[in-house]
Structures are given as C-alpha cells and as structure tokens.
Design brief:
The chain has 1170 residues and is α+β, with helices and mostly antiparallel strands. It is built from 17 helices and 64 strands. It is globular and about 95 Å long. The C terminus is likely disordered.
C-alpha cells in the first residue's frame, strides 16, 4: 500500500528543491557522475570557480542529461563572472529540473547582475510562488522595488524576510531604508540602528555577493539518494523472522498499558502505584558487556532483570548470576535501561531506570557492581518516563538525564481526593541532570543548569544537536504537550527555545518518538506518534521546525523506531501498535506499507507496551538491522534476513578524547549519489538504533565516512588507496571501526621560512594571543597579541634579494593578523640572541638577551632520581618525560625537573627550549569538575639550608618549539646553583642550556617592514612525526586541499594583496581561515653590512589574535565579534565594541568579503580532489 503525500509533505526541503509529490524524469546517470559532481561542489566551497566549472563540464560530457551538474555548472560560471554562460546553463537546468527552485533563483541573480530588472522579478516571483517565505527571494525583489522607488511593494517583501530572519542584517537594513524613504521614519530608523548593531554580533547574517552568501537557493545541488530517479521502488526481498531469545515469568499486569486509563486515588495507594509503573512494560537494551564484538541483551521487568549473552551461532545464554546482576532492589520497578561507558574504562556500563530506586552498575570486566550510592545519586521520588546518557558539557564523559512522567505521590495526596486519566491528569514531574565528575561521582546540577522549573509528563528525552552548533541540546517530549526543546547555552545552562524554533507546533497526545535525518538536509528531524496523532517534526535546515502529518498508519503507536531495514539508503519506519506491528518503507517521496511482505513471520513485536521495550541493532552482525522486543513473558528477536542485492557499512566508534562510547557523535556517509547521517545516542526509550548501519542500496561501497566527535574533532575515513593498480576505485568496507584521533585541533598559525633550498617549518606562534580560552569558572585569561619568534640565520636565506616568510593557518581556528616586523640582529658567531618569550600572566615585558659560553647543566634529574642530562643536551625530540599523565588531556601529576647548573661566576641566562601538550577549554571543564587546575611551570631554587623556594614564573612554551630565556642573575642568591622546574602540565623540555649574559652593545639591529603581503588559499601541509614522536612538524612541499577541519562561519579577508592591513597595528586584520596562507617578503638589500665572522639571527614580531573552535571556548562557531587591542578581554562586554570609524567600516566592507556560512562543510567524495 502506497501512502501518498499531502499538501505539505515530508521531503519539501530536500536540497534538490522538490516541493511537490511529482517526480523528475528518471535518468541513467551513473554513480561515477555523481562523484564527479561532488568533486565540483567541493571546489566551489573552496571558491575555485574556474576549477569547479571544469569539473561540472566534465560531468556533463559524460552525461548531458545530468540536471544537477548543469545547474552547478551555471553556479560556477556565475561566480566566475561569466554571466552569459550562467544564463545559458541555468535556463537549461530549469528545463531539466522543473521541480527545483535553484535554477530559477540563479536566473534571478544573473538577471540582476546584467541589470535585466523585469527578468529578475519574473525569476524571483517564480521562486516565491512556491516558497513564499524564502528570505533570499524576498530580499532580492525587495531591493529591486526599493531601487525602483516602489516602497510599498519593497516593504511588503522585506517584512517577510525580516520576520523569517530577524538576525538578517540585509533584511533589517533594507526594510528600515524602505520605511524611511516612504516617510515612515519612526518605524524605519530603529531598524537601521538594529542593522548596525547586528553587524557587531557573532550571529548576524548578511546577504552579499559571494558563493553561499546569497540565499539558500543560490548554492549548488547535491544528491541525497532520495531523488525519484535514484530510488529503487521495486519491492525489497528483505524479510524478518522471529527468534525467541528468552521466556520470562508471565506478568499479567503488563497486559494493559496505563496510558489513557483513569485511576482513582485508591488505586494509587499501597501497591497500586507499583502496578501502574509495571504496566509500562519494562525495558530491553543491547549491551556488549564482555567486549567480544557481539551485542548481548539486558532485560528488566517488574519481577526480574536478566543479562543474556549472545554466543553467535551457539545461541543465547543467561549469565545474570555470573555477572552480579541477579539482585534487584525490591523498592524499584524497572522502566527501562541505558548503556554507556560512564567511567571511560572501555567497558559498557548500565543504568537501570526504576520507579522507586534506579541503579548504576559499573562493568568491572566479568562482573557488574552496583555503584549507585558511591556515585551520589539523589533520591528521585517520581515516576520516571525517560533517561539518557549525554555529554552535555563536552568534557569527555557522559552525564545522566532523567525526565519525569508523573508525580504519583502528589497526585495521590491531592486535597480533592481525585485521581484522573494517566498521565495527563496526574501532577507533572521534573527533570534531573546529573553531571559526571570523572571521579566516579555525579553532581545534581539541575537548578544551576536552569532546568529546575522543567516539569511535565515526559515519554522521551532526546539529546540532540538541533541547530548543528556542535553541542548537545535536549528535546523532552511530553505525552500531552507541549514538548520542550532546551538549547545548550555553552555556559553550563540551558534555555527553552521551543516557541522560537517551532517545536511547540507539535501538539497532541504522544506516547512514542524517534529521531533521524528524514529529509536529508543534515539536520535532525523527529517523529511523534500516539493514540490518535502522528507527526513529522522537520527541520528547515536553519534551526527551526515545522510539523506535518505523518502517514496515518503511525497513529495508535506504542513504540516507534527509524532504521533502514532493507539497506537501500533510505530510513524506514517500524511501528508497534495495539493491533499489531507495521513496517513502512521509505520510497523517497512517499511511504509504502510493506508489513505483509516483510514481516509475515513476525509476531512478538505486536505486544510491546512502550518504547522502552523496543530496540533496533544488528544483533547477528550480518550487516542489517534486527528488531528486539520485550513483551509479556518473552524477549523476541525479529531477525532481518536482509536483501542480498543491497550493500551496507556497519560503523563502530571508539572514543579517545570524547567519551569512550562515542555517545553524541554525528556520523555521515557519502557513497556516490547517496548522503546519509546517523547520530549516536544512549537513551530509554531509544531515540535511534543502538548501532550504526548505513544501507548503500546497489552502490558498491562508501567513498567516505565522516565523524564529528563530541570533542569537536572532525574525522574523515577514506579508503587507504583511492584506486587499485588497474585504476578501479576502492571503497570503505564493512565492518568499519573508527577510533577517534587524539589530535589537538588548534595550535596557532604556522611559520615557514625560505632556507635557501625550501620553505622550512620553524614553529607555530601567537599561542598567547588565543581568545576565549576557558581556564575555569569566570577565568578567561586576557590574550597577549605580540610575540617575537626567533629564526636562526640558516633558516632564513635571501632569495632574489628577498627574505621570504610564509604564515599558514592549517588548523581549526580563525587567525587575526594585524602587523609584522622583522628584526635582524647581527652578532659575532660565538654569541646568541634570544627574546624573553614564554606565556605568563601578566605578559612579560619584551627584552632581548645576548648570551655566550653556552653549556649544558652539570646534571638533570627527574623525580625518581633518574639522570636525564643526556635528554636535554641537544634538540633531538628526546625529552625528560617520566612523569605520570592524568586521564584529562594536558594534565599530568605534579612533577619536577632538577638542574645542577654548577658554579655561576658571571650573570647567567637559562635557556629552556621545549613545547607543551595543551589542555583545551573542554579539558579544563573536565578538570574543574574533578577538582584539578593547571599549575604553569615555576622555577624554584635550593637554598644553602637545603630548602626550596619559589623564584619566578617560567612561562609556558607556546611554540613548537619555543625557547624561554630567564635572567638568573635577577633571581638567584649568591651561591645558589641548584634549581628545579615544577608543574603539573605536560611540558616537554628538549634542550636546556645556561650561558653568560653578554652586553647588548655587541649586537646590531635592523628592522624591516614587509614590502609584499599576499593572502591565498593554499591548503594543508603534510603532518610528520619524526621518530614517531611529538610534536607534529609539517612538510611544506606536500600539500592537500582536502580540509580535515571545521571552519568558523563568518567573513574572512578576501584573497590577494593585503599589504595595507599588516603595515600598522590598527585593528584592521587579515582574517585567515583554515587552509589560508599569508606570503610575506622583506627587502634583504635594506640590511646593514656585517663584519667578517658575524652572523644574523632574526626575530619576527607578530601582532595578532587567534580563536579556536573548542565548544567550551568563547564564541567558537563564528569569526565575530572581531577583537581589538583596547578590549579588556574576550569576549568583551556590551560597554565595549570593535572600532566603528569610517576607516574601519571601509576596511570591513572592502576586505572582509569572503563569507563562510557552513561551520561543517558539506560531505563530498574525497577521491579525485587536487
């Protein structure tokens, strides 16, 4: 049975632009052609319009009927300023894609560019006839009418745009301008002022010329796999058959659901409330408790809890007593169960949600231990409806949430003596949020997280990232509505945004929910279903939702799951109802009831009482998803026999920096024309399958799988080799295990210098200029924007009369570069010159040291007495590193390195060369919760009495490497020669020298300013680890354009000549994104001659700021707000602002025109990129 769409239907927001049920004309476009299209779109997103046009042209040579490639060809030509070619190709694309709005919108842009006003109006009108609320079309037509002085028409259109996007600068400004010019000054002037204020925020949207900056329909089209020509509508051969896993003691009380039933007060006294709770059915959850790769099952009902081991072909075996789970609290009635590795020991732990007393069981290998009391869980005297593990503060461990279904005690004790219908007439129950402290304990932070007033009748809690901001938001679905969506404010609080984003439009009586990317726009969508209602709650791709009717067959659901049962690449719906289970297949633009075909041998799922008793996972590890149900007296496995004509990729995650279960990761896959996304979660009722199985349909394999980890790490997995020796492409194979890369996502810009033969990696720099670094509550250090980077004379050799320097941004950050100067120090060959670098707070005043008679300390000793003098003698990447590491990145046990300097007869300078393995903001969050804090290196001296005294803050080596110079004559008492460096940071000293301080009159100084400064988008150098040791170094000669990083949204400096921007410290920055390179050239002919026997050492003085994307850092998603030197800190308060002079406004308008709108770039096929 085909379930047709209604007036507003599920897939209206497909990127294909389909807005009706009608399909496009089927084509025979090959998967290879789609891969070529993906490659072209990737080049578009790198702003290589000519290169993209060549690739799309190649795709059209192979397949002239390939409509989306033709549209994308038109987009590339338009942004390459070939308007005639863009008009030609967009016209053809509009004919090829009659249901798509993108070609019409592009024709409007082309017509505006060519000043063909009537044609532009016609094109944008065609868009608005279908999508009347599109912001881009309303703005464009509003601007046209504004230019034509038709103010009434302009105002009407611009009001629509402003209502849709109140944060849109272009909409606010043009609406205000139209009102003012029409005489409505009192209405218009505030809008003009609001537009100006919006420009300084980090969330404003501005429409301006540039790819991805002119509206949602101005971008390229990518296939999703749901387009009519890509969907295989033939009936799948995948079927299910029942396998009884275990027979349980029959529980008569489970035969009737309490939902919708009326209870008197008498029925809630004594055992009545327990009977009500037992009517919820208990729960079942997959768990690989013995880490053997097989998913076992844990089952909890009102009378028993059992652990059932999956022995593969040998069947199922109950191991409850052997694993310590045979005893369950008599005071509790199980509702459901959740699995995650809460203590990060790589073993799956178990939380059993009960009415009365829940339990946390720690998996210690072969046994489970009840650690509820030790964990510090408070009593929860309410009937719970749902629970979930989620890393809400992104500190690398899972926290615990419980949502209440009803307050039975308060209902029973009403003065009226009346009970009511369950649960809507019962008193509501609160949320509980327990923060994981990483020491085995949890802390109730419900009130401090501003969730203390959240009461309801919750049937589901879904940790999700509804707006793709990389944090964990919370959707709480209430039985009788309204459901609530709590936005993560990233300050350890949540804000109810249900009204703003449209979640409250989903009204009705809902007993079950599920989450998935239904419309394939890479944003999460939801399904709500209940006795008489069923809704799709669909994201619009901009952080808002619309509710549309779901197929009526979902009405009456008691449990619901979304998964791809036939591995065709489209997620399907499995629903359990009182009158039987239903399987509904996704056909891209319609749904088909395939129950009679696919579930003919099923029976057990019909008896599921609530969503706690239904779970989906690939239990038999054969590449397709099975269904497990808990009913009265039996646990049943509906085994999926699969469709042998469809392939799949099963993905397993292993967190390293993130929580070890990978809970909260977003997993994306691209296989030719197919795009898919699954989010991992741990909840009861389950919001998604317990594991990840991507169906591929008839496609041979996956091109790339990408994981966005809860830590923020963006990690792509591609085939080890793009092709075989014969040239045939290679694909990712199933099963695929993805272990999180323990890589530091940022460490500041990199410096390369021309050494006479090549550009040599010197170090990274501006580490002290990082903004928004979270060190502790209310503790964000002020950035120090100035650093002097020491460059040896052999590292910087003139070429054609120029000293050439390359500054690259190759990591996950935005870099703000304001000024560069090159100091050339001439000195005798036996003398060295060093700046006094090393990050301290407050920053050290700049000084220069001339040092001679350099020597290694007599002895260097670690805490255990080991002599490590040979480890500090030379730069060889061999460090004193015997100190113990904490589990939290960047933290170590307190440790010292003791140095005997020998007799110091002259004023001496200590030279410490090393690097730091940093703790990032999220690491500091975890450390704070565990009672830890960083203690930067300090220098201590041993007195004549044998006591240690603190001498001076050493500073943190923020380069890789960086040398810290300390004038010992200012800090040591006469006769003191034994010192030690003490810290709990992961600081690694590679070389330590001591020398005699020489007078500065032995050196001569020249200062050069850049004569050339060019900004280009270069890509990413190859990362190397010599001798398999850290820190990472970079090979400039090996470069790729494939980015492994996310990118802050916002306005970056346009490419080309930027010499004016770096000539003075004026807060007019070169703003560089990841992959950018700033090429600097200094005139070597301006250097003074030097005497024979003298050499040069250079200091590059850099002035700038950096900002990285750690989710707990300040403003990590956007370039703005822009920094400035006079700010008191970052982020700065409302009483401060970036300079708003005419000069600074011109700078922003003329230079910062390269706009990035997507924090996470579209997932493309990686193969074949240049």
């Amino acid at each position: 049975m085909i379930l047709r769409c209604t007036s507003r239907w599920l897939f209206v927001s497909l990127l294909l632009g389909t807005v009706s049920c009608g399909g496009s004309v089927p084509t025979t476009t090959s998967e290879d052609s789609y891969r070529v299209n993906n490659r072209g779109v990737a080049l578009l997103e790198q702003f290589d319009y000519e290169g993209a046009a060549e690739v799309f042209s190649e795709a059209l040579i192979d397949d002239p009927s390939f409509g989306i490639a033709r549209h994308n060809f038109a987009v590339a030509l338009f942004y390459a300023q070939d308007f005639a070619g863009a008009r030609r190709e967009a016209t053809a694309a509009a004919a090829d894609l009659p249901d798509s709005l993108e070609p019409q919108y592009l024709l409007g842009l082309v017509a505006r560019a060519e000043n063909r006003v009537e044609d532009a109006v016609d094109a944008f009108s065609a868009v608005l006839n279908v999508d009347a609320e599109d912001v881009g079309a309303n703005i464009n037509m509003g601007q046209i009418y504004l230019e034509e002085q038709d103010y009434d028409s302009a105002i009407g259109l611009l009001r629509v745009a402003y209502a849709e996007e109140p944060f849109n600068v272009t909409a606010a400004y043009n609406l205000g301008l139209a009102l003012v010019r029409s005489g409505e000054i009192e209405q218009g002037q505030p809008l003009l002022e609001e537009a100006q204020a919006l420009r300084t925020t980090n969330y404003a949207v501005t429409y301006a010329p540039g790819y991805l900056n002119e509206g949602r329909y101005a971008s390229a089209i990518v296939s999703t796999g749901a387009e009519p020509e890509l969907v295989d509508a033939d009936t799948s051969t995948a079927t299910f058959s029942d396998v009884s896993v275990m027979t349980l003691p029959l529980q008569a009380e489970l035969s009737e659901t309490p939902f919708g039933r009326s209870f008197s007060v008498d029925e809630l006294t004594g055992d009545g409330s327990r009977l009500l709770a037992s009517g919820l059915g208990g729960g079942v959850v997959p768990i690989d408790f013995d880490a053997d790769g097989d998913l076992d099952l844990f089952v909890a009902t009102a009378t028993v809890q059992e652990l059932i081991r999956n022995d593969g072909g040998a069947g199922w075996n109950v191991v409850t007593s052997e694993t310590g789970l045979e005893w369950m609290p008599t005071s509790g009635v199980p509702i459901g169960a959740v699995v995650a590795d809460y203590n990060n020991d790589q073993m799956s732990d178990l939380f059993v949600l009960r009415y009365g007393s829940s339990s946390l069981y720690q998996n210690v290998g072969s046994q489970f231990v009840d650690v509820t009391d030790d964990a510090g869980f408070p009593p929860y005297p309410y009937l719970p409806g749902a629970a979930a593990f989620a890393d809400v503060d992104h500190d690398g461990d899972v926290d615990l949430l419980v949502a209440g279904l009803a307050d039975v005690d308060a209902t029973r004790e009403r003065p009226s003596g009346l009970g009511g219908v369950f649960p809507q007439d019962f008193e509501p129950a609160p949320l509980l949020l327990m923060r994981n402290n990483q020491d085995g304990t949890f802390t109730d932070i419900t009130r401090t997280a501003e969730l203390g007033e959240s009461f309801g009748h919750a049937v589901s809690i879904i940790p999700t990232d509804y707006d793709n901001r990389r944090d964990v938001d919370l959707l709480v679905v209430n039985y009788d509505g309204p459901s609530r969506l709590y936005r993560n404010q990233r300050d350890f609080t949540f804000s109810d945004v249900s009204d703003q984003v449209g979640i409250n439009s989903a009204t009705g009586m809902f007993s079950t929910t599920a989450a998935a990317d239904l419309n394939k726009d890479t944003f999460p969508d939801f399904v709500f279903a209940g006795a008489t209602e069923a809704l799709f709650v669909l994201s619009d791709g901009r952080g808002r939702f619309a509710s549309v009717p779901a197929p009526e067959i979902l009405q009456g659901a008691t449990a619901l799951r979304i998964f791809d049962y036939d591995n065709d690449g489209l997620v399907d719906l499995f629903v359990s109802r009182q009158d039987g289970s239903r399987l509904v297949r996704n056909l891209g633009q319609e749904w088909s009831d395939v129950t009679d075909v696919a579930t003919v041998a099923m029976g057990g799922v019909d008896r599921v009482v609530t969503g706690h008793g239904l779970t989906v996972a690939d239990i038999d590890a054969d590449g397709d998803s099975d269904v497990v149900s808990l009913g009265p007296g039996e646990v049943t496995l509906a085994q999926n026999n699969g469709d042998p004509t469809n392939a799949s990729v099963r993905v397993t995650l292993q967190g390293v920096v993130s929580n070890r279960s990978g809970v909260g990761a977003k997993v994306q896959l691209r296989a030719g024309s197919l795009r898919a996304r699954f989010d991992t979660s741990a909840a009861t009722p389950a919001a998604a399958p317990a594991d990840i199985v991507f169906g591929l349909g008839k496609r041979i394999g996956a091109d790339v799988t990408r994981v966005i980890w809860p830590s923020g790490v963006l990690q792509a997995e591609v085939p080890a080799s793009p092709s075989t020796e014969s040239g045939a492409p290679m694909y990712l194979q199933s099963p695929l295990t993805v272990q999180e890369l323990d890589r530091e996502p940022s460490s500041c810009p990199l410096l390369y210098t021309w050494n006479g033969t090549r550009f040599e990696f010197v170090t990274d720099f501006l580490g002290a200029g990082e903004m928004g670094y979270w060190r502790g509550p209310g503790d964000i250090p002020s950035p120090d924007p100035v650093e002097y980077i020491r460059i040896r004379g052999d590292q910087l050799i003139p070429r054609d009369g120029l000293l050439e320097v390359r500054v690259t941004n190759e990591l996950e950050e935005a870099v703000f570069l304001d000024r560069f100067e090159l100091f050339a120090w001439a000195h005798p060959a036996g003398l060295e010159v060093y700046p006094n670098e090393g990050m301290t707070e407050p920053a050290k005043p700049h000084r220069v040291y001339a040092v001679n008679n350099l020597r290694v300390p007599i002895r260097a000793v670690e805490d255990d007495g080991t002599d490590v003098t040979n480890r500090i003698e030379r730069m060889d990447r061999v460090y004193p590193d015997a100190f113990a590491l904490k589990a939290i990145r960047g933290y170590a046990e307190p440790h010292t390195l003791t140095l005997d300097l020998g007799r110091l007869e002259k004023p001496s300078v200590l030279l410490l060369t090393g690097w730091t393995s940093y703790a990032f903001s999220s690491d500091n969050v975890a450390a704070h919760q565990a009672g830890l804090s960083l203690r930067p290196p300090i220098l201590e001296a041993k007195t004549r009495q044998g006591l240690w005294r603190s001498v001076v803050d050493v500073g943190i080596p923020v380069g890789r490497p960086q040398t810290i110079a300390i004038d010992l004559s200012e800090h040591l008492m006469p006769g003191e020669h034994e010192i030690r460096i003490s810290t709990n940071m992961r600081v690694y000293w590679d070389r330590i020298l001591v020398g005699d301080r020489a007078p500065m009159d032995q050196v001569a100084e020249d200062v050069l300013l850049p004569m050339v400064a060019m900004l280009d988008h270069r890509g990413f150098s190859a990362e190397l680890r010599p001798n398999n040791t850290l820190p990472t170094v970079y090979d400039y000669t090996r470069v790729t354009t494939v980015s492994p990083w996310k990118t802050m949204a916002g306005e970056y400096t346009r490419l080309g000549d930027v010499h004016r921007l770096i000539a003075a410290q004026d807060d007019q920055f070169v703003i560089a994104r990841d992959g950018d390179e700033l090429a600097l050239s200094f005139d070597a002919t301006e250097l003074s001659p030097i005497p024979d026997g003298w050499v040069r050492t250079y200091f590059l003085k850099a002035d700038g700021f950096t900002k990285e994307m750690d989710i707990n850092s300040a403003s990590p998603d956007s370039v703005g707000p822009l920094p400035f030197h006079a700010m008191s800190n970052y982020p700065y308060g409302a009483d401060e602002q970036y300079p708003d002079t005419p000069e600074h406004r011109r700078y922003r308008q003329n230079y910062n025109t390269r706009t990035i709108t997507r924090t996470v770039p579209e997932l493309r096929t990686a193969r074949g990129l240049p």
